[in-house]
Design goal:
Order of helices and strands: HHHEEEHEHEEHHEHEH
CATH class: Alpha Beta
Bound molecules: 1-benzyl-1H-imidazole, zinc ion
Number of helices: 9
Shape: globular
Number of strands: 8
Helix content: 25-40%
Distance between the termini: 68 Å
CATH architecture: 3-Layer(aba) Sandwich
Radius of gyration: 25 Å
Strand content: 15-25%
């Protein structure tokens, strides 16, 4: 009997194994998640362009001038007209040449009570001198691209949020006194601290207790034709996943010619201080066509930074990408 069992054992084992499920196949390597586009509002570039022009029509938005004061009041009022709660955060900042500037950060809150929040930001001041221009370098610039373009996109997004509610808190922040810094390359001085003074003030004095945002997107010089938005270095260091998600969205929307995959140099722009002082991951969409030694557009800090430098296609690409990122975040598909 024992002999019979021993002979049958392999057979019984084989039969038993026949009904067992096969061992699980090894997991395939994780594929990057495909970028989906949740339903999103259509960004109107004509409307954004009109918002850019309106700012430029006030005259250069240099702190301590009437044009600066009037334009700031108009930006705050326009956000309020679109139903957002606006905080005007006043501050004083030293100018590197001496004297004091009166600055105002304009913080427009969509659903201020919502816990999950995203920041879209731009600077609203324009540079007090055209130090990259051979003609009239001591006169202020219009800053149609460098300043007004980003704010124009934010104002159009505010208009869209009013008509297309979403389940997300959004803070549209217009930083002041970004562009009044020292551009001399004197290595004895740390000139980086003379720029982005509004963002530095905000990051040290958050407008709400325990304020936090999941991520932020800074828009700087987003209005010129044929932009080259490289993956900016500081953004890639601090928040590579946010950069890649935003660039993937832009590519799926068909804007791959502008949102290129090249990793660019790091720039000490407003986002640097939001990252380092407020600990919020913020990325910078900034045009670096590389046609000048600075790497910026040829009209950077010159009198050619005027309305004729603005291309509606660029406003559309940036605005549609941002509103899509917000829609995806609200839908849980970001
Ligand atoms: C961007 C546009 N910035 C000023 N206008 C920030 C910046 C400051 C970039 C200094 C490079 C050098
Ligand atoms: Zn500038």
């Amino acid at each position: 009997m024992l002999r019979q069992v021993l002979i049958l054992a392999p057979l019984l084992l084989a039969l038993a194994c026949k009904n067992d499920p096969p061992p699980p196949a090894p997991a395939p390597p994780a594929l990057p998640k495909a970028t989906v586009l949740s339903p999103a509002p259509v960004f109107n570039a004509d409307s954004a362009y009109a918002y850019v022009k309106k700012q430029v029509d006030f005259g250069p938005r240099v702190p301590n001038t009437p044009a600066h004061k009037k334009c700031g009041a108009w930006i705050a009022q326009t956000f309020r007209r679109h139903g957002l709660s606006v905080i005007e955060q006043n501050f004083k900042a030293p100018h590197y040449k001496g004297g004091e500037m009166n600055g105002v950060n304009i913080i427009a809150q969509y659903k201020p009570e919502a816990k999950q929040r995203v920041i879209l930001a731009a600077h609203w001041d324009s540079r007090f001198i055209a130090d990259q221009d051979k003609v009239n370098p001591d006169k202020p610039v219009d800053g149609a691209d460098d300043g007004a373009s980003g704010v124009g996109v934010l104002l159009e997004i505010a208009r869209l949020l009013k008509d297309n509610p979403m389940e997300l808190g959004v803070d549209l922040i217009c930083f002041d006194v970004e562009d009044q810094g020292n551009d001399s390359d004197d290595e004895q001085q740390d000139n980086s601290r003379t720029w982005c003074l509004g963002a530095q003030h905000w990051a040290e004095n958050l407008h709400a207790p325990n304020y936090y945002a999941q991520y932020g997107i800074l828009l700087d010089m987003v209005g010129a034709a044929n932009p080259n938005f490289e993956k900016e270095g500081v953004s890639m260091q601090a928040a590579p996943n946010i950069v890649n998600k935003v660039w993937n969205i832009a590519n799926v929307l068909g804007y791959g010619n502008a949102f290129v995959s090249t990793r660019g140099a790091g720039i000490t722009d407003d986002h640097y201080f939001v990252i380092t002082k407020a600990n919020i991951p913020m990325i910078d969409i900034i045009n670096r066509p590389g046609v000048t030694p600075s790497g910026f557009v040829a009209h950077w800090h010159t009198h050619n930074d005027k309305m004729s430098a603005i291309d509606k296609n660029s406003l559309k690409m940036v605005g549609q990408t941002c509103i899509q990122a917000l829609s995806n975040t609200a839908a849980g598909t970001f």
